[in-house]
Amino acid sequence: MANQAKNTSNFISSNRWLITVAIFAFLLYLLLPILTPFLIAAILAYICDPLVDKLSKYGIGNFKVGRTLATVLVMLGILGVMTLLFLIIVPLLQKESLLLVERLPALIANIRNNVEPWLQTKFGISLNIDSTQIQDLITKNWKTAGGLFSDVLKSAGSQGLALVGIVANILLLPVVLFYLLRDWDGFLASISQLIPRDWSDKTLEIAKEIDQVLADFLRGQLAVMLAMSVFYVLGLWLAGLNMALPIGLVAGLLGFVPYLGIATGIVLALLVAALQFTSFGQLVPVLLVFGIGQLLEGMLLTPKLVGNRIGLHPVVVIFALLAGGQLFGFAGVLLALPVSAAIAVGLRHTKTSYLGSDAYLK
After folding, report:
1. Closest Cα partner for 140 from 152, 150, 151, 132?
2. Please, which residues bridge with residue 281 across strands?
3. How many domains is the chain built from?
4. Is 41 exposed, middle or buried (0-12, 13-18, 19+ CB in 10 A)?
5. CA distances from 247 to 70, 235, 308, 333 (A)
6. Does residue 261 sit within a domain?
7. What is the pLDDT along the chain (362 residues), one digit of tens a residue?
8. Lowest CB count within 10 Å: 41, 106, 151, 177, which one?
9. Runs of H (alpha helix) within the chain
10. What DSSP designation does 280 have?
11. How far apart are CA 70 and CA 66, in angstroms?
12. d(CA 337, CA 226)
């Protein structure tokens, strides 16, 4: 019995860090439902910390901005950018949607005059599109949609706890972000003090390398997003698309998630173009904008501004995005590439250590 207890104690002592990591991972899994606001806040804090550091050093005379005021100013800037995007995109979508609904009868008439005769001649297919019935259907759906809000409110009333949880997460995000941004340097110092002294130098070396990789990646990705937003807005405007501004912004800003921005932009642009234009030839410039945009992003902007900083194969990138989304939802998608970059740095150091070890050289 004594030997068994001694063996157990030796096993725990020898594998204490592995056991600690396993317990932490298990707790993380249990806490997944409440982690989203903390993960998003941590991402924003990491991105904005250099800006807070710079602002906190400014001052006029004896007045210094300080860490707290710098944090408030940065958060106000984030809020201002989000509000500006909301004020640009939502009214335009509302206005253009109403115009497109008004043009729907013309689209139906165009299909009947051009597409239906061709289908009838080639395949013997008759669409039998009745514009009156479609307009009646749209009118009924608009009336039904008018009562949708009351149905949502009734559902929210019956599932009050779920609604309270969503609202709590939204309200919690800026609070957590404020404290993380204000105390970011202190958090890092506290964590570094907990690292075993034998591991300290190597851990700090890896952490600095990870930080450099992530900083280069984030700066480059932000530059690509802004450049592609400008390109898509101008390109779609020159192509004559009515909703060029909101669609271009959505396509460019969603570029931080691979394939999501281009896919969303093409779907929205084709939907709007189908209702706006009267011939297939008018759709070609819209498709050319996205085709040229992909070439510009993939062959020039991304290699130059981002490069191969992450060092991951495209298949690994896709898997990381899917895995992150499955585990943590939208926050997981945001975290997937940074975490993968950190793991890649760790694996490179592990490989170097292994290639110089006795296990490999013998």
Report:
1. 132
2. none
3. 1
4. buried
5. 33, 11, 28, 22
6. yes
7. 566 666 666 666 666 667 777 887 788 777 766 777 887 888 888 888 888 888 888 877 677 788 888 999 999 998 998 888 788 777 766 776 676 667 667 666 666 666 666 666 766 666 565 555 555 555 555 445 445 445 545 555 555 555 666 777 778 888 999 999 899 888 888 888 877 777 778 778 888 888 877 777 777 788 888 999 999 999 999 998 888 888 888 889 888 776 778 888 888 888 888 777 777 778 889 999 999 998 888 777 776 776 556 666 667 767 777 787 777 666 677 677 777 777 777 778 777 877 777 777 76
8. 151
9. 2-14, 16-30, 32-56, 66-102, 104-110, 116-123, 131-146, 148-158, 160-182, 184-194, 197-238, 244-253, 260-276, 284-296, 314-328, 330-355, 358-361
10. G
11. 6
12. 19
Rounded Cα gap, residues 158 and 166, in angstroms: 15
Retrieve residue 48's tokens.
């904005």
Report residue 31 as tokens. 């806490």
Nearest residue to 185 via CA among 38, 70, 58, 40:
70
| Cβ neighbours of 311 (radius 10 Å) | 14
Give the Cα separation of 283 and 150 in Å (integer).
39
Whether 250 is covered by a domain: the verdict is yes
User: Which residue shows structure tokens 């317990």?
Assistant: 23
CA distance to 217, 261, 338, 341, 351, per residue, from 311 (Å): 11, 22, 11, 7, 14
The CA R_g of the chain, rounded to the nearest whole Å, is: 27
Three-state SS at 129: coil
- Residue 235 inside a domain? The answer is yes
User: What does the block give as tokens for 298?
Assistant: 């993939």
Residues spanned by the domain of 268: 198-309
Tell me phi and psi for residue 312, to 5 degrees.
Answer: -115, 145
Residue 77's contacts (CB-CB under 8 Å, 6 or more residues apart) are none
Inside any domain, residue 252: yes
Contact 214, 341 (CB under 8 A): yes
Rounded CA separation 97/21 (Å): 52
Closest CA to 210 of 63, 62, 12, 343: 343
Distance CA 256, CA 297 (A): 12
